[in-house]
Specification:
Aminoglycoside 3'-phosphotransferase, Chain: A, domain 2; Phosphorylase Kinase, domain 1; 3-stranded antiparallel sheet; 2 domains
Length: 285
């Protein structure tokens, strides 16, 4: 066990004690530990993330959404969250193959419509600040992604950022793996990162997922159907949705390189960017 993992487990034990949670099951992921358990008669979930994790302040984000379209926050500490337990808790990614892409897109759209945020919490980043990875990659002289593609994505990301309107608090990572089913409350979003931007930005993650199915999300007909559905249902400019999806696909690949040093899911995201490229028009101002 690494020192970081040991610290995370100690923090988890401390929060279970403070919140009087009896654990039933523990789930460890690459960047967090989740315990499903009980507090008195209530079924709850406790999640802890390491210091510096991009969900460190997600409790503030969940609080701002107030349970609207998202899992309910019951209590929080730095990097630790006490949540309602969603049951059965199946992800949209796990059942999407059975439901079909049109139905999963409709569900994602409904979740977005239900997510009505309150005031932006202190310290929430902007989409502009998230774009810093373009410059970092260029300064390092990376060669795993085409420099022309990086430049085009960076330029479009910057132009879209400058021309935003009606910015608000967004989930920031809303995709098929972060939407779970609850038998009483329906489909709900989990694990927000929290970012301030226009609503069209929110769709980028959904359009490059499920990440394990690049043969689906890189298909031009799928891209067109998804973008058309979201744009009409959410009253958004389809060209801006498409432009954000293109730029974010490249940016997500850069984040994977920063975190892991290799492209895994990022290979599919770059393929998506290249599939969208011929569809792009000038950025609407």
């Amino acid at each position: 066990m690494s020192r970081r993992d040991g610290t995370l487990h100690r923090r988890l034990r401390e929060q279970l004690r403070l919140w009087h949670v009896t654990p039933d099951r523990t789930i460890e992921t690459k960047g967090s530990i989740v315990v499903l358990g009980r507090r008195a008669e209530q079924r709850v979930a406790v999640k802890v993330v390491p210091n510096g994790h991009d969900e460190w302040f997600s409790g503030r984000v969940l609080k701002a959404f107030g349970g609207n379209g998202v899992v309910r926050l019951l209590d929080q500490a730095d990097g630790a969250f006490l949540l309602e337990q969603l049951r059965p808790g199946h992800s949209l990614a796990s059942v999407g193959g059975h439901l079909g892409d049109e139905e999963t897109t409709r569900i994602l759209n409904d979740v977005i419509l239900n997510m009505r945020p309150g005031p932006v919490p202190d310290g929430a980043p902007s989409v502009e600040s998230w774009g810093a990875s373009f410059g970092r990659y260029t300064s390092r002289g990376g060669d795993l992604i085409s420099p022309a593609l990086i430049e085009e994505a960076h330029q479009r990301y910057s132009e879209l950022s400058r021309s935003q309107s009606a910015t608000r608090l967004l989930h920031g990572d809303l995709h098929h793996h972060n939407v779970l089913l609850d038998s009483e409350r329906g489909w709900l979003a989990i694990d927000p990162k929290g970012v301030v931007g226009e609503l069209a930005y929110e769709l980028g993650a959904a359009l490059r997922n499920p990440c394990e199915r690049p043969e689906l999300f890189t298909e031009p007909s799928t891209i067109e159907k998804r973008v058309d559905w979201f744009a009409k249902a959410l009253l958004l400019d389809a060209d801006r949705v498409l432009g954000w999806a293109f730029a974010q696909a490249v940016l997500a690949a850069l984040w994977e390189l920063e975190d892991d040093g290799v492209l895994n899911a990022g290979v599919g995201w770059i393929a998506l960017a290249n599939a969208i490229r011929p569809m792009l028009k000038s950025v609407p101002m």
